[in-house]
Structure formats: C-alpha cells, structure tokens
Specification:
By secondary structure, this protein is mainly α. The chain has four helices and no strands.
Length: 110
C-alpha cells in the first residue's frame, strides 16, 4: 500500500515549504550567496574579525539552506522513486522509499 507513503511525502513537502517561509529561505539563500562571494575575496582577510563573523554567519545560513534543499530534493526523489517502484511492482524499492521518507521526517523534526 503506497497511499500512506504518498501522504507522508505530501505532508513533509508542505511542512518543508512552511518552514522555508518561517525561516525566510529565499532571503537566507540570497545572503548565503553574498557571504560566500565576500569570503572568496582575499581582501576580506585583511580584517580577521569581520572574516570570522562572515564565516560564522555562513555556517548558520548554510545549515538552514542546505537542510531545506536536502529535504526538498529528497522528497522529490522519493516521489519519483516511488512512482518507478510501483510501475515495476518492486516491493523492495517501495520499502526503501518508505525508509527514506522516515529519515527525511526525522531531519525535518529536529
């Protein structure tokens, strides 16, 4: 039965989108790109304190952005793999998808 898995994917996708809004994903993504650009400039290290602050900010931004990116892509991949597993009547693959969805749920709930 794949309906519970599909419902879980849908629920987690909706929750991921909501969390992305709460955490201002778009703004954090844009800022992460900007911080990375600044850190690539060798002159930023002329002010070590500023560079360290940028490094800390980058780590915080990356945690949010990369977690949400991983969840979004993982859920999309799970949906695609589930479709293929059903098409091929592959119960082992369905179980693998169910396990992956549970792993993604645990990440989301941290």
């Amino acid at each position: 039965e794949i309906n519970p898995i599909l419902n879980s994917i849908k629920d987690l996708s909706e929750r991921t989108q909501t969390i992305g809004g709460i955490f201002d994903y778009d703004q954090k993504y844009d800022r992460l790109v900007e911080v990375n650009r600044e850190l690539e400039d060798p002159n930023v290290w002329n002010n070590p304190e500023y560079a360290q602050n940028l490094g800390r900010e980058r780590a915080q931004l990356a945690q949010v952005v990369e977690t949400l990116d991983d969840l979004t892509s993982g859920l999309a991949d799970s949906r695609d793999l589930l479709d293929m597993a059903v098409e091929e009547d592959d119960e082992g693959a369905v179980d693998d998808v169910a396990n992956e969805v549970e792993r993604l749920r645990e990440i989301l709930e941290k």
